[in-house]
Amino acid sequence: MRNLRWLAALPFIGVLVGPFFLNRVEPFVLGLPLLLAWLVFCVLGTSAIMALIYLTDPENRAPEDRR
Fold first, then answer.
1. Does 1 score more than 70 pLDDT?
2. Do residues 4 and 56 touch, judged by C-beta distance below 8 A?
């Protein structure tokens, strides 16, 4: 589980490092300039990674009936 939490750093690194390499208008991705498309991808990727971490965390599972 601890190793999966390191995935949360990927979108953060993508937002910080991506503009240095993708700061241009063309090509357009889905009608968006490349940098804006990259930032949208990072936001969507953050949601997916957080959902993955939440679903794999054993503390978020339903409690068992202890009788």
1. no
2. yes
pTM: 0.71
- 45: enclosing H helix or E strand: helix 34-56
The pair of three-digit structure tokens given for residue 67, joined into one six-digit string: 């009788």
Beta bridge partners of 29: 32
Cα within 13 Å of Cα(54), Cβ side: 6
- Tens of pLDDT, residues 31-46: 888 889 889 999 999 9
b/e 15-54 (16+ beta carbons within 10 angstroms → b): eeebeeeeeeeeeeeeeebbbebbbeebeeebeebeeebe
Residue 53 token pair: 């971490």
